[in-house]
Specification:
This protein is an alpha/beta fold. The chain is about 35% helix and about 20% strand.
Amino acid sequence: MPESVARTEMRFGTRLVRVYPAGPSAPAVYCSDYLESGEKVIEECRRLGASAFSLVTVSNLSWDADLSPWPHGPVVSREDDFRGLAGDYLGFLLDDVIPYADSVTGGAPSARHIAGYSMAGLFAIWSLFETEVFESAAAPSGSLWYPCFRDFFMEHQFAGKPRRVYFSIGNRETRTRNQYMKRNAEIMKELSAECVKRGSESVFEENPGNHFVDSELRTAKGICWILGK
């Protein structure tokens, strides 16, 4: 039986924040989840040999709206709702989630990192341009195909100097006719190389399968890498 994972949670309106604490001296990883999966991610991290860290998850989001950096029409399906509210959501993380997490863990962590799958991976990388709070970022199967994001990345500087930036994709994810999504691996490779040019450690990895395979494992791999495992 897997070891149980302690957690504390609070609702902020409809959003659910869960903190899986590892003590005030441990680094903290903030992860936006489509469906809350903190316990599974921690189990995968333990299996991969990660050092101790506190995980903070935020779920019950307006996924497309909260995580898109600027408005855009539908790209994946007619139900897309890219309202460009990432700035507001980042403010929520900084002003509400981080103080709450610190109160649970018993103080400020040794470092703060951000990670996220799919659109949350896009948000994680975008946040590096808006704040110096996060030391590293991981975007497993991140939606870096988002319209105009590649150009935004190349034309702007990070708010600080991130230590590590992680990109990964499933090797079947780009087998699509969608003009944006089919370029995702190419974009990730380019952005990873650009991170290195800017002085950050960076890696691009391929995983087996499509976008909907092994999301917890892929997220754990990204977390382990930015933590230095």
